[in-house]
Specification:
- This protein has helices spanning 22-31, 48-59, 91-94, 103-108, 130-139, 169-179, 195-207, 240-252, 268-277, 314-321, 342-347, 377-389, 409-415; strands at 2-7, 13-17, 39-42, 62-66, 73-77, 82-83, 86-89, 113-117, 141-146, 149-154, 160-163, 185-189, 210-212, 218-222, 232-235, 256-260, 280-284, 287-291, 301-303, 327-332, 351-355, 358-362, 371-373, 393-397, 419-424.
- 51% of the residues are buried.
- The chain has two domains: 2-19 and 238-424, UDP-n-acetylglucosamine1-carboxyvinyl-transferase, Chain; 22-225, Alpha-beta prism (UDP-n-acetylglucosamine1-carboxyvinyl-transferase, Chain), CATH 3.65.10.10.
- A hairpin with a 5-residue loop joins strand 13 (210-212) and strand 14.
- By secondary structure, the protein is of the alpha+beta class.
- The longest helix is centred in the middle third of the chain and has 13 residues, at 195-207.
- The strands form six sheets. Strands 6-7-8-10-9 form a five-stranded mixed sheet.
Length: 425
């Protein structure tokens, strides 16, 4: 197992290039299961979750390869293996990450019988798939649970008006993929509005699907029995969570960073809070200039679905508030177990108290390097940022979580001047 050794107290300076969005690339790669045509994807990040997704779609009938050493992924069609008439998404692959359950919608669009293992992922909450299942039922799919698998049998797919009880990103993506082969109108109320939903919709449109309202809470989809018969090319949007993490890294180390390949519009909630805290942020085309000028002021946040403050930046923002002036109240409303990083930050000298869904962060003068353990992807990013700001040496273990969502993390930080190295424990 590997860990990071970080020498803190160095101001980050320079330029960093943001990779393609993990949370956009995963559903789009899975959506390639919908078509027999060749799919070429650009700006795909080389991450553990991406390689897991490649394993999954190859098992389900695709041939995937990277073009040279670039970020271009080429996906070609093969016939999937069937087991007693069912196309099976096995537990050994699906357990590795939450997004893998999206194969159910993509497969049901093409096959009448599908078995999909219940998903895994970071230990940040239960994240049930009942919203997905109820939507499938409305569209004409029967299901039951057997041996840890959702067993789906497609009947007559038809139009439906689906009202989500919660704007689930995964459920919205699953319905978009299943509806892509229904040549009647499917309406989604309370749909997720994330930029990654818009990116998936843009990809599906290139297959011939008619979609209106993506990016809003009301989406209309009219699918088609046969997609357009030509190769499909698509460029993955920049990763807003990675961009936000580097903006926070600039603030916590009192640095000055130019963030390239970023869509600032997708980070409004974070940018507003960073500016209110005292950071200087300037935006020009696809670049964001972040600089520290004075001691930051404490800010309160509440995590909610897009366009509000993202849960995927809550841990990093909490790390930033650890040395801000005053007290911050951070309320987590998306996942029930997303304060696992609090105990580790307190080991570094932070002063944080948890009260149910709220964490109260009292700013301290400085953080002190310590040995800490990563519990999940975003908590890991928070601990690395805290280590970069802390006095002395920090040792961050279980960093395999970070490999799921940050491409070349330590290399990019080194390029900004950080003293960080990866070692074998």
């Amino acid at each position: 197992m590997e860990k990071y050794i970080i020498e803190g107290g160095i101001k980050l300076k320079g330029k960093v290039e943001i990779s393609g969005s993990k949370n956009s690339a995963l559903p789009i790669m899975i959506a390639s299961l919908l078509t027999e045509n060749k799919v070429v994807l650009y700006n795909v990040p080389k991450l553990k979750d991406i390689f897991t997704t490649i394993d999954i779609i190859e098992f389900l009938g695709k041939k995937v390869y990277w073009k040279d050493k670039s970020t271009v992924v080429i996906i070609q069609h093969r016939k999937p293996h069937k087991e007693k008439g069912f196309v099976v998404a096995p537990y050994e692959l699906i357990k590795k990450m939450r997004a893998s359950f999206l194969v159910s919608g993509a497969l049901l669009a093409n096959y009448k019988k599908v078995k999909a293992a219940l998903p895994g992922g970071c230990a940040i909450g239960v994240r049930p798939v009942d919203i997905h299942i109820k939507a499938f039922e409305q569209l004409g799919v029967d299901h039951n649970i057997k041996g840890g698998y959702e067993v789906f049998v497609r009947k007559n797919l038809s139009s439906a008006v689906i009202k989500f009880s919660y704007p689930s990103v995964g459920a919205t993506e699953n319905v978009l993929m299943l509806a892509s082969k229904i040549p009647q109108e499917v309406v989604i109320f309370n749909a997720a509005m994330e930029p990654e939903i818009v990116d998936l919709a843009e990809f599906l449109k290139k297959l011939g699907v008619k979609i209106e309202g993506e990016g809003s809470s009301f989406i209309k989809v009219v699918g088609c029995k046969n997609f357009i018969s030509c190769d499909v090319e698509h460029t993955i949007i920049p990763d807003r969570i990675e961009a936000g993490t580097y903006a926070i890294a600039c603030g916590i180390t009192k640095g000055e960073i130019e963030i390239c390949n970023v869509v600032a519009e997708n980070l409004k909630a974070l940018i507003n809070k960073l500016r209110s805290s005292g950071l200087i942020i300037e935006i020009e085309d696809k670049k964001m200039y972040v600089s520290y000028k004075e001691k930051l002021k404490a800010q309160n946040i509440i995590t909610r679905p897009y366009p509000y403050f993202p849960t995927d930046l809550q841990a990093q923002f909490m790390a930033l508030m650890c040395t801000a002036k005053g007290a911050s109240v951070i309320k987590e409303t998306v996942f029930e177990n997303r304060f696992l990083h609090v105990a580790e930050l307190n080991r570094m000298g932070a002063n944080i108290f948890v009260d149910g869904k709220k964490a109260i962060v009292y700013g301290v003068e400085k953080l002190i390097g310590a040995e800490v353990v990563v519990s999940d992807l975003r908590a890991g990013a928070a601990l690395v940022l805290a280590g970069l700001a802390a006095e002395g040496i920090s040792k961050v273990s279980h960093i395999y979580h970070l490999d799921r969502g940050y491409e070349n993390f330590e290399q990019k930080l080194k390029f900004l001047g950080a003293k960080i190295k990866r070692i074998e424990e």
